[in-house]
Amino acid sequence: MQVAVLGLGEAGSRIAGDLAAAGCTVHGWDPARRLDDIGNAESDVAAVRDADVVLSLNAAAFALDVASHVSAALRADALYADLNTTAPALKRELAQAVPVAFADVALVGIVPADGLRTPALASGRGAHRFAALFRPLGMPVDVVGPDPGDAAGLKLLRSVFMKGIAAAAIESLDAAEAAGAAERVRAEIASVLGEARLERLLNGSRAHAARRSEEMRAAAELVEELGVSPRIATAAAEWLEQLRAQASTHEGP
Description:
Layout: E1 2-6, H1 10-21, E2 25-29, E3 39-40, H2 44-48, E4 53-56, H3 60-70, E5 79-82, H4 88-97, E6 101-107, H5 111-114, E7 120-123, H6 127-134, E8 141-145, H7 150-178, H8 182-193, H9 195-207, H10 209-225, H11 231-251
Helix pairs in contact: 3-4, 7-8, 7-9, 7-10, 7-11, 8-9, 10-11
């Protein structure tokens, strides 16, 4: 199988490497990064030209631009899968932007740790094909609906809970440190979540604050569309934006 991976960040690079190790021919493209263990294409168009499957792992803000730019170079029988975390409405736009079967894929695990073994939700016209191709490679794929956006929506609803837990943990520990009780409170939280998960929530929130704040804005919009007041989603988005601003300040000019 020939696979184009558009976006070689933390998730894209791990998945590209796993695909190559599984015997796939992988052509990756990223304007800012190259990998040693895959074929690095000269452009996004060159990457997708002969691909059976295209995996888009760009930032959600660029997903539509990338899809539109490569659409004319896609093979008629190609499958285009967007793995970015974004709003269901954008997934529907992406499905319209490409003239081939489209799969909305939501990764619901820890990609840097699990790579191709990361559980995924899939929806859209190409969802069953995506599942048929990637389950044999070790990815647990659950087809959740016929429409693009179904998988994305389910992940955003899950994110309200997961990012809400992360926000609560950091706020609790910050206050505990101010009270001189950091070790005790951390131990109590870890007894519920597990030390490894707690550490991932704390570190991941700070490392990926910019991307996750956008994710939670999308989650808040979805929750409100469903007729529920997005108290937790909105608070988590604001908190992540504050973490992003703090990181920018610490990095300096």
